[in-house]
Amino acid sequence: MIAKQTNQKAWFMVLPVFLVVAFSAVIPLMTVVNYSFQDTFGSNQFFWVGMTWFRDLIHSERFHDAFLRQIMFSSIILAIEIPLGIAIALTMPKKGWGVPVCLISMALPLLIPWNVVGTIWQIFGRVDIGLLGHTLASLGFDYNYTQDPVAAWLTIIIMDVWHWTSLVVLLAYAGLCSIPDAYYQAAKIDGASRLAVFRYIQLPKMQRVLLIAILLRFMDSFMIYTEPFVITGGGPGNSTTFMSIDLVKMAIGQFDLGPAAAMSLIYFLVILLLSYVFYTVMSNIGEESSNGGA
Amino acid sequence: MNLSWMAWTKPTATFFILIFCMLVAMTIWEMKSPGGAPRVGILRFETTRGDRLFVSLLGAAYIHILWLALFPGLALWWAFAIACVYAFCVFKWV
């Protein structure tokens, strides 16, 4: 039970943040809602169309395909990056000179801007001049991400894993470092196996940071734009046209502001729902384990 | 004040005013009768009054979208009615 707060003055301290968020997020979002019910041909002239854009979008095959691609991409990314990040964090040293070396090498990919990462992998994967593309071609693999959808997907997934697994590693490592030695000593006395230590000590203690890692990686991968845009531009065909790429094509390429606003809102709702579900489920698991566990 | 850059219309303005009124009403409710402490409902997770409003609004958005997907020819007022019943249930049992 949370004690009731009697001093409400602290709310005034929140006021500046409230104003900044209103100015930078809430008011632009309101504009998007306004656009989603109207059509425009420029010159700041709008025509009320009601729910037309939402109705069209929900029944549009193009939207379904982009949505499925996005879900598939985020699922693959989470399925690879979370276990891999935990595995790397478990192998990292806890003391000695290896700690700063590992931490700095892990932090390096995170410091590179997204468009630079895209450019690096775009060149790296090229069959004519790229190290990866050329090597694979020399070994006899039919790898060409500009023509083959599977190669394009593989390139983008490996790039994302290269770029963002470090984030999961650093978070998981922080969780592991916060476990007191007494837990390991108790496990040793009980003769617990390595797997049992991981299952009953390390994993529960990492739960909260892993929740943050999953949320961050989910939201980020669900909104991915720059890297795939630089590498494949959404192609070959539409095979890597994720929702954000499709949205930009619609809003800026075709100047269909109304449909693009409707798509933005549905996109926003999906992210909101999935993040809320992830957060609630993970927090519940955390609560249960802290109530019933060590 | 020129709001034409935001492309305001009467229905969208009404929508946001209603949301704002809901937030004000929730604040007054909490001040008059405090009781927003977390509780565990039928979905087996802790919710405060604010959480229940959030779940109701998010659910209402999905109910309207689903209605458009399943019954594109029928009036949205039906979806609105379902969303109101849903919100009542969320506040009562979640």
Descriptive report:
With 294 residues, chain A is mainly α. Chain A is built from 12 helices and 2 strands, in the order H-E-E-H-H-H-H-H-H-H-H-H-H-H. Chain A has a two-stranded antiparallel sheet with strand order 1-2. In chain A, helix 2 packs across helix 12 (257-292), helix 9 packs antiparallel against helix 12 (257-292) and helix 11 (243-253) runs antiparallel to helix 12. Chain A starts with 9 loop residues before the first helix and ends with a helix. The mean pLDDT of chain A is 89. Chain B is mainly alpha-helical. Chain B has 2 domains: 1-34; 39-94. Chain B has 3 helices and 2 strands. Chain B has helices spanning 10-32, 49-70, 77-93; strands at residues 39-40, 46-47. Chain B has a two-stranded antiparallel sheet with strand order 1-2. In chain B, helix 2 packs antiparallel against helix 3. Chain B is flat. Chain A binds chain B through residues 1-2, 4, 27, 30-31, 33-35, 37-38, 40, 44, 46, 48, 51, 54-55, 58-59, 266, 269, 272-273, 276, 280, 283-284, 287, and chain B through 4-9, 11-12, 15-16, 34, 37-38, 44-46, 54, 58, 61-62, 65, 68-69, 72, 76.
Please name the defining characteristics of this protein.
heterodimer; A: mainly alpha; about 75% helix; globular; B: about 90 residues; mainly alpha; 2 domains; two-stranded antiparallel ribbon
Could you name the CATH class of chain A?
Mainly Alpha
Largest interface: A-B, 29 and 25 residues
Q: In which order are the strands of the major sheet of chain A placed? A: 1-2
Largest sheet of chain A: 2 strands, antiparallel
Helices and strands of chain A, in N-to-C order? Answer: HEEHHHHHHHHHHH
Total strand segments of chain A: 2
Output the structural class of chain B. mainly alpha
Low-pLDDT segments, ≥5 res of chain B: none
Strand content of chain A: under 5%
